[in-house]
């Protein structure tokens, strides 16, 4: 899913490097060996025995019980919890489409995101015309030459462990985006935070929060084809299980200015999720064995050096089953003189890659510096927001307020 153009662990034995630069920063390689779970040939998707999701606890009948505070928040908006879990979430009545930052509620519906449902989810492509992309050519650099997306090596848990796929429900149906496990400064080694795009969690000025938001790290770990995944066991598609967002935060700029084609919110199109496992007790970082720092210095494009973008493109010619990456030196994209300049790189990834992290090397360590937001109709480049002080404040509030939950 994208916006304006194509809005598309604790270390053990000291052996793990989450991101490594190869050859004078000419290429970025996401490298990680997962902390227990997946192997080269198989993936153990059982991160633990205790059920824990969105603050959920075991019910008397062995099912998942939604905590009282979440029930109360739903009831405030006239939503019956049982009806919601039985399919009421499909009701997109304007009065029940929660939109304000304080309104996010995402109760776990265990078993909802089964492999077949994941396979049927579509990219929610947001594209802009060439004319729209050229709105402020006085500041924008010339459009970059296309860079052909390169398939990431499998298994993903060894080559790109922090990267995963995000699933959610919208009025148009089940949708997909990409996301990245990031470090939690207040809870080192135990992060439950995921970075993605704002339009992957909230519809912007025309709507509200999406529903049933789930993060699946190292989705389709072995990069198998659709035919090979027919009848696949859940752990083959989700080696580390499903991680439900029990809280989400995106910028006011996206909530107020985001639109079906990105709009003025594109420059603020970023979000942070706090997640908990549908099954299990360990943190996301401990389970996956990987998490990345975020660089909020917002360097100018000319000073940023080479960047790499990772994600799961789902619109043709891709099908969302495999992870891809693009490496390029960024230029500037300005949608309006009144908006912050965005980064832009050449890349042929399509919708579904939205929200996927962009990485650059800082002092010898690769860090997340942006995320895929928008791209053109011809899928020749991607653009992402600069992450400055507003993005840092959103991240720090998420870490301080929800990180320890």
From TrEMBL:
Signal sequence, start to end: 1-34
Entry annotated with the keyword Calcium: no
Annotated stretches, region: Disordered: 45-64
Keywords: Signal
Keyword Cell membrane included in the entry's annotation: no
Comp. bias (Low complexity): 45-59
Superkingdom, taxonomy of origin: Bacteria
Protein name: Secreted protein
Source lineage: Bacteria, Bacillati, Actinomycetota, Actinomycetes, Kitasatosporales
């Amino acid at each position: 899913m994208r916006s304006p153009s194509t809005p598309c662990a604790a270390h053990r034995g000291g052996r793990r490097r989450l991101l490594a630069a190869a050859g004078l920063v000419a290429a970025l390689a996401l490298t990680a060996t997962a902390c227990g779970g997946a192997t080269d040939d198989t993936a153990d998707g059982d991160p633990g025995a205790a059920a824990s999701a969105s603050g959920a606890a075991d019910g008397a009948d062995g099912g998942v019980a939604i905590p009282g505070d979440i029930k109360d928040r739903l009831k405030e908006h006239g939503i019956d919890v049982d009806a919601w879990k039985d399919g009421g979430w499909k009701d997109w009545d304007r009065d029940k489409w929660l939109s304000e930052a304080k309104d996010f509620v995402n109760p776990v519906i265990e078993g909802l995101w089964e492999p077949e449902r994941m396979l049927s989810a579509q990219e929610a492509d947001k594209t802009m015309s060439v004319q729209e992309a050229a709105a402020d050519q006085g500041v924008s650099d010339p459009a970059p030459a296309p860079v052909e997306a390169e398939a990431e090596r499998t298994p993903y848990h060894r080559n790109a462990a922090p990267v995963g796929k995000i699933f959610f429900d919208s009025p148009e149906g089940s949708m997909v985006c990409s996301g990245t496990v990031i470090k939690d400064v207040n809870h080192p080694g135990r992060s439950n935070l995921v970075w993605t795009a704002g339009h992957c969690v909230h519809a912007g000025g025309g709507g509200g929060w999406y529903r049933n938001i789930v993060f699946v790290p190292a989705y389709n770990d072995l990069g198998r084809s659709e035919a090979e995944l027919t009848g696949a066991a859940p752990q083959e598609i989700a080696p580390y299980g499903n991680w439900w967002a029990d809280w989400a935060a995106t910028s006011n700029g996206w909530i107020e200015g985001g639109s079906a084609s990105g709009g003025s919110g594109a420059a603020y199109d970023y979000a942070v999720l706090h997640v908990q496992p549908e099954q299990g007790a360990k943190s996301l970082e401990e389970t996956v064995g990987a998490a990345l720092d975020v660089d909020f210095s917002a360097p100018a494009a000319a000073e940023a050096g080479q960047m790499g973008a990772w994600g799961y493109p789902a619109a043709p010619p891709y099908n969302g089953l495999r992870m891809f990456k693009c490496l390029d030196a960024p230029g500037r994209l300005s949608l309006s003189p009144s908006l912050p300049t965005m980064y832009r790189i050449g890349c042929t990834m399509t919708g579904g890659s939205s929200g996927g992290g962009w990485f650059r090397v800082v002092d010898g360590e690769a860090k997340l510096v942006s995320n895929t937001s928008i791209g053109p109709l011809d899928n020749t480049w991607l653009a992402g927001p600069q992450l400055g002080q507003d993005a840092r404040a959103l991240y720090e509030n998420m870490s301080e307020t929800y990180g320890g939950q």
